[in-house]
Amino acid sequence: MYSLILALGAPATTTDSAASSGSMWTTLITFGIIILIFYFLIIRPQRKRDKEAKAMLAAIKKGDKIVTIGGIRGTVAVVKDSTVIVKVDDNTRIEFSKNAISSVLNRKEETTVEKPSKKKEEKVETVEKPAVEAPKAEAEEEKTEEK
């Protein structure tokens, strides 16, 4: 019985250094592939989301409609360095940390004044000629009926 336990539980020892070297390279390649998979599926997309969130928070300005992580919706009244004062109702204002903003619903559109063009656009309408044959035939029939 003791010999069976030793045979099953004892690690396989090889005197060949090539066999152990080959399994070491296989293990290293496997770990390298796993690290690459983690990088492309988890780390890289998370960095992209963080970068977009920082850009969103940096671009917040007065008049933007926002939603906080707690679900409170309001309009930005004042933007400070690390906080934002949000107008929730007519006379209600709440100060939040910028990190507490979940998303910007719609940005206040900047008013851009377009210079009127010096050229006036002319509208050209094309009008098709009416079908002359059918009304003439009807007009002739009406004249013959009157006579």
Describe this structure in words.
This protein is α+β, with helices and mostly antiparallel strands and 147 residues long. The chain has a domain at 59-106: Roll (SH3 type barrels), CATH 2.30.30. 44% of the residues lie in helices and 18% in strands. It has a five-stranded antiparallel beta sheet, with no helix packed on it. A hairpin with a 5-residue loop joins strand 3 and strand 4 (93-97). The radius of gyration is 39 Å and the shape is flat.
Notable traits:
147 residues, alpha+beta, SH3 type barrels, 5-stranded antiparallel sheet, 3 helices, 18% strand, disordered N terminus
The top-level CATH class of the domain at 59-106 is Mainly Beta
**What's the alpha carbon Rg, rounded to whole Å?**
39 Å
**What is the mean pLDDT?**
77
Q: Spatial order of the strands in the main sheet?
A: 4-3-2-1-5
Shape: flat
Structural class: alpha+beta
Which stretches are poorly predicted, pLDDT < 50 over at least 5 residues?
1-8
The total of helices stands at 3
